Amino acid sequence: MAxxxxxxxxxxxxxxHDPNIGTTGLDNRKVGMWIFLGSDCMFFGxxxxxxxxxxxxxxxxxxxxxxxxxxxxxxxxxxxLLSSLTMVLALAALEKSDHKWTGRWLLxxxxxxxxxxxxxxYEFYTFAVHDGLRLSTNLFGSTFFTLTGFxxxxxxxxxxxxxxxxxxxxxxxxxxxxxTKVEIAGLYWHFVDIVWIAIFTIIYLIP
Amino acid sequence: MATHxxxxxxxxxxxAYTGVWSWITxxxxxxxxxxxxxxxxxxxxxxxxxxxxxxxxxARPDNNLVSAQTFNELFTMHGTTMVFLAIxxxxxxxxxxxxxxxxxxxxxxxxxxxxxxxxxxxxxGLFINSSFLFAAAPDGGWFGYATLTTRQFSPGHSIDFWMLxxxxxxxxxxxxGFNFIVTIVNMRAPGMTLMRMPVFIWMSLxxxxxxxxxxxxxxxxxxxxxxxxxxxxxxFAPAAGADPLLWQHLFWIFGHPEVYILILPAMGIVSEVLxxxxxxxxxxxxxxxxxxxxxGFFGFGVWSHHMFSVGMGPVADAAFSIATMLIAVxxxxxxxxxxxxLWGGSIRFTSAMLFSLGFIAMFTMGGLSGVMHASPPxxxxxxxxxxxxxxxxxxxxxxxxxxxFSGFYYWxxxxxxxxxDERLGKLHFWLMMLGFNMTFFPQHYLGLIGMPRRIYTYxxxxxxxxxxxxxxxxxxxxxxxxxxxxxxxFKTRRSGQVAGPDPWDARTxxxxxxxxxxxxxxxxxxxxxxxxxxxxxxxxDGHGGxxxxxxxxxxxxxxxxxxxxxxxxxPILLALALTFMLSGLLISTYQIIAGGLLVLYCMFKFAxxxxxxxxxxx
Amino acid sequence: xxxxHAVAGPQSHGGQEPAHGGGHASVRTYIWVALILGFITxxxxxxxxxxxxxxxxxxxxxxxMSAIKFVLVVGFFMHLKYDHNIMRSFFIGPLLLAxxxxxxxxxxxxxxxxxxxx
Lengths: 207, 618, 118
Known about the structure:
Chain A is 77% helix and 0% strand. Chain A is an all-alpha fold.
């Protein structure tokens, strides 16, 4: 009993140095990010549920398969998946303190994300101008632009975050001891990717 | 009183702990708890005044104290205020103050995020109430049903204030939810396994999960409404093929877990108060915990019981009806466990105990009327009548508010170092019991004889006159009881009896430290050997085991080595920037853009505030 | 639970460096996962162009393929395969809830994906 107390007390003292590590040995920020992602599942779940509840009920106006550009969207999906790879490569490089490659992979991830957003802007523009599909055109327009728009906004936020990390790295203010900070940015980024996996299949592919 | 506080090794700052600036920049969970408590209480009184005006209007038939439009604003703001600005933040006051203390921690996982939640809450509460100044108070009910709330039928800014205000408040709640979950999971003292946590912590944990999982649904609902009102989308436009029921579903997917968010903290408080004043451990604590978890989980499966009259069809009606009846089971189990805690106990009838006992009785009554609503055919008579008003006031006032007052009387000495006056406390309780039952019990009858909800007046020949008058008098008696509490609070600030660390001979860790606690809470993080650790230290386990050793008195050196996070002004700045950005929707796009850039700037400064410079400091 | 911090895996360093969980996928694994993801995506898109494929089969195969991609990204890239149970439950619980809510909304609105319109 006494040794258990001493051990527990020693444990309490050891984790005192890094205020981010809790008594379970887990990093607060990582646990927090997973809960946030769980919450974000409910957010996108509600938006996807809205889309599916209104699917096929538009009165007039273009429908999904009148306007979808599957090759473009597939390229977007591939780009985002690739960006998830570059993200984990950035993290792996950081763990080896290879700052050169950490920076390159981080930048690559951000640029791939920006490319995704660029594709989406082009897609929205084409729908609005060439196909006459806007937010206010019909239920499809309302639900589609809102759902994919919020996803795109999440991607944009992620790009800004990654660029911020890249900038910190360039200024010599990021190293292996900041692993968790980059890791949680990665978790967010992969989440945005898996939401797209869901949206791509449910909205674009399924007839 | 200045004390040093260093977060990064090698960085020392002299920090003052008095003055307005120290409150504005505080990241101390105890101070944030007090901020929540005081702010929420003020909003509670505002919501109460809104109720008094309504009851004054309804005291007599064909009354003209207020117009129909004003009455709509009153019941909308009363509901919105009581749910989002009173009960939730009063619970948050206790989450903030007590969670770290009960789990043996020095603060929450993310202290600045904690402060941010408070300031966002304050901004949201002020924002939504500022609508009164613009003669645009929300008037669509606290539940804002489409299509009434669409631009076509609510052309002014009232609904915009409501919608934006709730979005702002939602962000505050969710941030706090993430914070408390990580705190409870990751910062418990060594030896405090999940099943050794106090029941209040368990109920709080379930509540935080409900918050982070239910609020996204209302966030989406409000976004859809906002897009309809501002960008011409068609989410609630029947002519375009849309279904207004989408609003109701999304709202109640949030709304039903929300009512469990409102009641579970009070249930947690009662689970602490009853054992203390019965001098008996909580009967079947694991069962109470599991019941709380089940209530939280199944709470997501019952939402359409608010929609039995919309025509969902027999399958949906039956499914939600069965689920609703099932959820009464774990609730009933908890009530039986609380009563069993009292059985054979050595009862002390302090004010805190009286409010907890009152909770059990009043909440049970509210639960019974709730179970009646669970049957769709029965509900078709009761829905949209005063019977429902009676039900939810019994559970939310008789339940949540009574429970919260129990918490106030119980934890006041810990938070302030002084006891509230017991005689005034008992006067408060009995006046409130009288007033509350006078106000709401007759409403069951009024509902059953046909009085609808949300009407600003009624004809004098319907047989409703007498009980409406009784109900209104009761409301003013409630107000009187609140006044007694306010007098008690002010009176005992200076001259109240000084409480030591443990005035109640209680069971949990918060009573092991001084009242009020020092900024660092525990000089040495305790080691936990069982549930009710403090009781084990004082009295042993009651089965012949010796009391567990009390922690040694800390040395001055140990105390000086404690590092607490320093204050920060980024939380309030970020909260202001966020409010500035979102309110731009009502003013101009440039404000949204400027606000957005400001928010980004504040977020980066917040995130990098303690990031080290290029040279490592160790 | 006697040892409340036995959770940290072999790579934790107690003080300055955070615990990275029980294990790690190698760079090779990541690249393989990425290739598989690309491959499945290509199959998904190709499935759309298979002539005469019954609707039910198309939909279910697409859902299965996207679920596999989902699990691969979450398990490997997001490291959840190696992480502590707590983080797994914090994600999977809400994910299941979100899926149930989607299905409930579809049923309540008679989304024609479940009940084909005449």
